Amino acid sequence: MKYIVILGDGWADYPDENGQTPLSLAVKPNIDALAAKSVCGLCKTVPDGMKPGSDVANMSVMGYDPSVYYTGRSPLEAASMGITLTENDVTYRCNLVTLGGDGDYDDLTMQDYSAGEIDSPTAEKLIREINEKVKLPENCELYAGVSYRHCLVHRGGKTGAILTPPHDISGRPIKDYLPSGVFGKEILAFQKASMEVLKRSAVNAERVRAGKNPATSCWLWGEGTRPSFAPFEELYGIKGAVISAVDLVKGLGKVAGMDSIDVEGACGTLHTDFRGKAAAALDAIKTHDYVYIHMEAPDECGHQGDKAGKIKSIELIDGLVVKPVYEEMTRRGERFKLLITPDHPTPLSLRTHVGNPVPFIIYDSAKEVRGVPTYNEKTAQSTSVFVPSGVELCKMLLDK
After folding, report:
1. Cα distance between residue 280 and residue 62, in whole Å
2. Backbone angles phi, psi at 352, to 5 degrees
3. Confidence bin at 112 (pLDDT 50/70/90)
4. What is the DSSP string of 80-99?
């Protein structure tokens, strides 16, 4: 038996004024065809009392109870970057962001949490400039990651900072969301110092000339400490692999003892190599029992309030990932199961995550059932099938 998870990050949504969501508006014949012969329902992936981040939700869908294993977002990303942590270290996600407006730092607005979806080579140059020209807080190290996503490590630090994800405050003044709490003063000083360097950077000047958003400041959030996971193979008795463009999900796979497979051209946006991800999954499933394919694009579009982009991302996943994976696995003739689901909703109206239950389908090539005519939030709810946690959904997929 082979198991494949196809996860469209954040693609669930709230209905618009016409009762439609991106999932109901998208043309997705392959997913709909599978929904007609699959178990379909809703799953609550985010436990009560926990923030509905992609860290918690993906961990849950991957079969790990966040209430047991979660120690923060950034240490998972650090694991993907190959950063060695001790039990006394604290890590922070470091976004390169675009702050807009005039006046002092406190008077500015969160214009763009991703600095125009800055590419990794350009971002690496800027992180290098910051490392060379900014005096980092004592006992801190700054590491370059993917696109706008980077990592600050505080060796021998303490948790307790009060930090806000930048995608939660898009378009808002930052004055009410500045770092505070434990180490907050030092973080704020670092952010302000990063802006002084970035506004004089020739790299940013070139971005402005090209009509792109400059990276004008670092913004820290996602505090955490070193995680400790039971190996996936030990928990579930099968060998797993993860395919993702983002360090968070790659890191989840690594701390779970899975193989993390890189795909050239995978970037976490609408421009990612969807075909390459499908091909990599089909190759990986030959030597693994379980493959987790993560696509970030719907979530990015949700954060940007880009309805057309979110619909397009669903259609691209349908045609370039679901179709070839289903057709090739069917051709091979070995029994397989597919789980198609988001991790959490990212409603366009809010431009951030919520913890509402998400629609899923589980297809079993050896046990087709009567499902629903099309896959979306409403049809999933109509089945009255409800799975109380992502861990239970994982077990349902794996027949545990």
Report:
1. 19
2. -150, 175
3. very high
4. HHT----TT-EEEEEEEEEE
Domain boundaries, the chain: 2-69+229-398, 90-224
**Which CATH number is 2-69+229-398 given?**
3.40.720.10
SS3 assignment, position 154: strand
Mean local confidence (pLDDT), 221-248 = 96
Tell me the one-letter amino acid at 111: Q
3-state DSSP assignment of residue 272: coil
For residue 110, give every residue at least 6 positions away whose Cβ sits within 8 Å of its Cβ, in sequence order, or none: 97, 99, 100, 166, 169, 170, 171, 172, 174, 177, 219
Measured between alpha carbons, how far is 220 from 251 in angstroms, rounded to an integer?
19
Contacts of 367 (CB under 8 A, 6+ apart): none
Torsion (CA) 39, 42, 43, 47 in degrees, nearest 10:
-170
pLDDT, position 220: 98
Average per-residue pLDDT for the chain: 97
Q: Of how many residues is the chain composed?
A: 400
